[in-house]
Amino acid sequence: MELKKYKAVKALIQYKKKFLLLKKEDFIGGEYDLPGGRKNPQENDESALKREVKEEIGLNIKIIKLLNY
C-alpha cells in the first residue's frame, strides 16, 4: 500500500521563554505535538500556518521565521 503524501505546517510558539506543546488525545495515543496541520493546495506556507494555529488554539500569530525541511 502506497502512503498518501501531503504538505503540512507546524508552529513553534514561544511566549516568555516557554514553548507551547499540545497534548492531542487523538494523535498517536495522546502524544505531544506542535500546533499545525495540512496545507490546502491553494495556500502558501504562511497562510496555512496562520489558519491552522487559529483553528487549533484560537491564536492570531506573528510569523518571525519560516523553516522548510
Topology:
Layout: E1 8-10, E2 14-15, E3 18-19, E4 22-23, E5 32-33, E6 36-38, H1 45-57
Antiparallel strand pairs: 1-6, 2-3, 4-5
- The whole-number mean of residue pLDDT values reads 91
**How would you spell out the order of helices and strands?**
EEEEEEH
Question: End-to-end span in angstroms?
Answer: 25 Å
How would you sum up the major sheet? 2 strands, antiparallel
Beta-strand fraction estimate:
15-25%
How would the global form be characterised?
Answer: globular
Compute the number of structural domains: 1
Helical coverage, percent range: 10-25%
Q: What Rg do the Cα atoms give?
A: 13 Å
Total number of β-strand segments? 6
The assigned structural class equals alpha+beta
Strand order of the main beta sheet, please? 1-6
Unreliable segments of 5+ consecutive residues: none
* Helix segment tally: 1
List keywords for this structure.
69 residues; alpha+beta; two-stranded antiparallel sheet; 1 helix; 6 strands
Would you mind describing this structure in some detail?
The protein is α+β, with helices and mostly antiparallel strands. The chain has one domain. 19% of the residues lie in helices and 20% in strands. It contains one helix and six strands. The chain has a two-stranded antiparallel ribbon. A hairpin with an 8-residue loop joins strand 4 and strand 5.
